[in-house]
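Support reply, case 0932

Customer input (verbatim):
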Amino acid sequence: MSGNREKKKLLIIEDDLGLQKQLRWNFDNYEVSAASDRESALTKVRRHEPAVITMDLGLPPDPDGASEGLATLQQILAMAPDTKIIVLTGNQNHANALKAIEMGAYDFHQKPFDPEMLKLVVERAFYLHTIQQENRRLSLTQSNSPIEGLITRDPELLKACRNIEKMASSDVTVMLLGESGTGKEVLARALHTLSARKDNRFIAINCAAIPESLLESELFGYEKGAFTGASKQTLGKIELADSGTFFLDEVGDLPFQLQAKLLRFLQERVIERIGGREEVPVDVRIVCATHQDLTKLMEEGRFREDLYYRLSEIVITIPPLRDRVGDALLLAHHFKNKFCAKERKATLNFSQEALAAIEKHQWIGNVREVENCVRRAVIMAEDSSITAQDLGLKTTDSSVEPLNLKTIREQEECRALVKALARADGNVAQAAKLLGVSRPTIYDLMSRCGLR
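Our regenerated output:
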């Protein structure tokens, strides 16, 4: 029995029982199941999740055509898109075989089939399926994103990273939206590093960190004698970034009167230093970021609408850490290892209670909060285990959620059963078909889940 479970799963969809038997015999080294119509085929796919399927397009009620077979193919691929489907077809059905390939079938083989050749095709399909699954597994276990310095496995943030890679080579102005501490500057630097400007300067300025009276001279520079204390010509940050990238952080805090001057630069690509009359051309790529709702600021008359549209040629939204599945723990482990090495401490580990507290915490300060929290814990830990108290995180009994696969599976099975019974209006046989299991299995599940 255990040997059978280790065999690769192959499904044969064939309404000719004689041919079905012949195919079963030909593939006796696989765990073979068979179906003769669309309904039974879909049930077998749900129940066995075969990696490879051979199928005849001529299925009842259209055994001489291909409509039923193509419809079955479409439904299987919608349900299990990674499945490799090999279509068996006669000489006269070549056009339908090509149509099946267009719809997503892996390959086709002509009837009457050559046993050895079909074996090779099936074997290759299994091999390709295994390779693709392994690549997917490796990508899931890869802790680092394509962007250097950004650690994530979150699909939304990985999508943002891929978009950064795509637009890095252009000079389009990019706006990064996200809460403080989510990694906006890391993505801005990535845009620079991946661009043709990488050998020139990346200059960043935080509009919220510089007093309003000094911000104009920081941005645009000034001439000697422009004001009291201006003893020499000083270049502004925009001019210093010439031929490189200029990162305008917290642009939502840019004073209203400076917004017009920045807009003129974006339109004309020239600046005027304070106290100067000469226009200085500057070739620079602009990236900006903010945690504020600029739409709301525009409605309140605190941010220029024309400037917003100049700055937001492409907008990338960075999700907060609380919405990134698994990233809090990933970052906690990363910072723990980093600070253990920096503080020259023996390797520390998080207690189960600490891990549960990290998962439950909302991390309002995002990545920056995790970094500070873990650094403090590494310094304060008294033994080889970092506790929730070391992290400064509150924990309760309800927050210590054991990651037990059996418990999770049982909970999900009960949820699926309730949904299926609701969809089938309480009909057990119909619910069994929807879930791809037998009626006795449904009754067992109902008993286990406390359903009558």
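We compared this against your earlier run and they match. Two observations from our side: The mean pLDDT is 88. The chain has 20 helices and 16 strands. Please reopen the case if you see a mismatch on your end.
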